[in-house]
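Anyone else keep sequences and structure tokens together like this?

Example one:
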Amino acid sequence: MDHLSTLQMILLILLAAIAIIDGLTTSILASMPITIAVVAGIIVGDVKLGVTIGATLQLMVLGVGSYGGASVPDFTTGAIIGIAFAHSTGKGTEFALALAVPVGLLMVQLDVLGRFTNTFFQHRIDKNIQDLNTKAITRNVLLGMVPWGLSRALPVAIMLFFGQKIVDTIVNDLPDWLMGGLKVAGGLLPVVGIAILLRYLPTNKYIAYLIIGFVFASYLKVPMLGVAFIGAALAIIQFQRNANATPLVATTTQTQSLDGGYEDGEYEE
């Protein structure tokens, strides 16, 4: 691929393999588009592009999880490919997103293949457990990572090394209605992600802050970073108000009764 060195391509291939393995095991990078995209941006030398692509794709996967063996679009791998080609061709963010979405959808099929292949090692581990062979258990657990890593590394390697031909096939040979649909979906999915997020947040309680953020972003055209700073300031104010609020304290006093004695009484202040 033009404008990317062999070392950069190798690092991107390794990143794709490490991302899926990390998501299944250590979760150091959390296998999220935003974190992997930043690393990919550092590798290609364009951190701004990495942050932009990663943040957009992260909104697409909000509320989406792979539960019970279900396979979901892998926009983490899509982010790596989108950033690599957008940087090498100089076609910018829209091109990267248009490429990342179909790649992420393609990864669903390869994810199924990775799961299917991995069952071979799972059955071997079951037998090792019955035989109490701890060394074999460890060995097969490590070998089980291989199909997962290859399910991401191989397609990334093919796309990177074949370069522009693969991009032309994806971009030019696909029908206009499909590419147009993908672009529309790319614009709608972040909104869907935000809607899902708001569904589980105490939005009704803090609706005023939501309106303030909407006005700043939509009408005053404040950049997202500025809106984030405003939100952080409002959050600090709200926290300080809650911390300084005087709680109701029950206090016990003595009052003199009619017969000259004292009675205990309680009041709140």
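And example two:
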Amino acid sequence: MKAALSPDYFYIGLCLLILASLIAGYIDAIAGGAGLILIPAFLMVGLPPQLALGQEKLVSTLGTIAAIKNFMKSSAIIWKIVPIGIASALLGAYLGAEVILMLPTHIINYIIFAFLPLGLAATLFKGKLLAGNPQTNEIKESALAVFITCLIVGFYDGFFGPGTGSIFIIALFIINKLSLLQASATSKIFNFASNIGAFVSFLIAGKMAFLIGIPMIIANLLGNHFGSLHAIRSNGEIIKKILVITVGLLMVSLAYKALS
């Protein structure tokens, strides 16, 4: 990052990244989509694309722990489907990260800007998808459905990432018939597993900056903590409302990048 910014602007850029990490953690705990904020922010301060993707995994992986802790206390996580989902998400994310690391930098830049709208669409239309599927009291615990879902979403998380939390929530709500709060809580376990899978791959490749990552991790932990508490107190209703904020922040980030 210091190579990308002059000394005068280094600390300003770091402060902006810390603020972005705080906001991303809060949003991620409620609706998913931390990468929609973090990756554009990393690119805007000049981090190379592979380092931006790896840094997002560093911050998001550890930041999610605070949200998982609070959701565990609320008993909203459906533990019966967790083991197979974790294994599948880990595998999928590791494979996805290995694929993206094999590609040249200029191709990754194109992929990032091509896939950002996909993450945006998952976030933007999640509310409509969830509203269009009335909730039943029957939770489907199909091992095959959980495995395939987590493998595919996990691969996407390792390959790119933004919108993964929203995609997990949609899949668990529609396919496995979890309630909105249950889907949001259980998706954190799977998203954490997929983050770990990608984290290992990017760590081995040396695509992480731990020194600047420490304050961002702390900020992300705080954001996840308060965001998950807000989601639990609101019984999941805030999840739909926060989508508007996520999309708005992303559009600002993309507009800034385009103009600069």
